[in-house]
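Example for tutorial group B:
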């Protein structure tokens, strides 16, 4: 039985749906601090759980005989800059609670998402390697670096089977993100369909590593299903698919919506984006457990616009 903490979030929502398809609706307990969307609430068991509340998580584990926990509850980069203490508390205390439950043998396996936000301004920006300088300049990035080392510590010291991926920016049409810096690449599609224009909060040449949600969800499940002997990294595997700028995604959209207009109004999130790599080397994930992305900018754009046109029009 799987428990997803943070199931109402951008990744948690899609991950829960995919896990339910694979394992059966009643084998995946969804939970979050607030209810999920209609589809989530109708497709299987849901519980209101504060991901930092170890006792409640333990009670749920016992009640449903949970063996795996996916911890997707977090405060993302932009919101974390506005509420540093809250972000640190949620991002760290939820991880430590779940790692302790695994150390105490209440669960067998943990998934915890890291991020390319672990890298900072003095990290090599092109094809950033798996092992390199990590001096994040954001609260979110600090919490992710700390989290990576806690995961590795619990694995080395207590044998906890915790697995982690450094997600790039993740783009979805089905669930809206909240509080991220890469969210412009989600908002742009909704605006292109609904308004035919978009004011981008990052500068036009801001290149960032990005990935379609379907690839991110598949990578997560693939990592959790791979034989333990293939896992050589217990901090967080670099994971990549593509890199693009706002200008490039806008011109891809114009191939489908020729009259689409974009303008640029960088805000405080520009500084966050500028501290991150432009592209990521994920060769270790590809060699250790056969990771392979499927979507690039043009196939992702086609898939999103087709789905949104069905949904919104
Ligand atoms: C954010 N989507 O923007 C997240 C992610 C690398 C970006 O960590 O904060």
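The residue assignment follows.
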């Amino acid at each position: 039985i799987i428990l997803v903490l943070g199931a109402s979030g951008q990744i948690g929502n899609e991950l829960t749906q995919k896990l339910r398809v694979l394992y059966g609706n009643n084998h995946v307990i969804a939970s979050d601090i607030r209810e999920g969307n209609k589809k989530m609430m109708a497709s299987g068991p849901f519980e209101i759980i504060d991901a930092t509340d170890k006792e409640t998580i333990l009670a749920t584990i016992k009640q449903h005989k949970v063996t795996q926990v996916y911890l997707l509850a977090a405060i993302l980069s932009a919101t974390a800059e506005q509420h540093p203490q809250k972000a640190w508390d949620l991002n760290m205390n939820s991880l430590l609670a779940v790692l302790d439950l695994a150390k105490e043998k209440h669960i067998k396996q943990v998934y915890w998402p890291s991020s390319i936000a672990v890298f900072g301004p003095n990290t090599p920006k092109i094809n950033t390697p798996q092992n390199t300088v990590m001096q994040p300049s954001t609260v979110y990035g600090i919490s992710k670096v700390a989290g990576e080392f806690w995961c590795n510590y619990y694995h080395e010291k207590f044998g906890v089977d915790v697995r982690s991926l450094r997600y790039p920016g993740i783009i979805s049409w089905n669930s809206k993100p909240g509080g991220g810096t890469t969210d412009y690449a989600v908002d742009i599609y909704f605006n292109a369909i609904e308004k035919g224009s978009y004011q981008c909060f990052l500068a036009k040449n801001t290149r960032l590593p990005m990935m379609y949600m379907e690839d991110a969800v598949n990578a997560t499940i693939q990592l959790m299903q791979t034989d333990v002997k293939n896992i050589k990294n217990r901090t967080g595997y670099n994971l990549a698919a593509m890199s693009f700028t706002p200008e490039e995604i806008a011109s891809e959209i114009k191939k489908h919506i020729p009259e689409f207009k974009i303008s640029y109004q960088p805000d405080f999130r520009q500084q966050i984006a500028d501290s991150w790599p432009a592209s990521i080397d994920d060769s270790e994930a590809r060699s250790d457990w056969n990771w392979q992305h499927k979507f690039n900018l043009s196939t992702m754009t086609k898939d999103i616009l087709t789905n949104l046109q069905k949904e919104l029009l």
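The CA atoms of residues 136 and 142 lie 6 Å apart. Compare this with the pattern of hydrophobic and polar residues in the output above.
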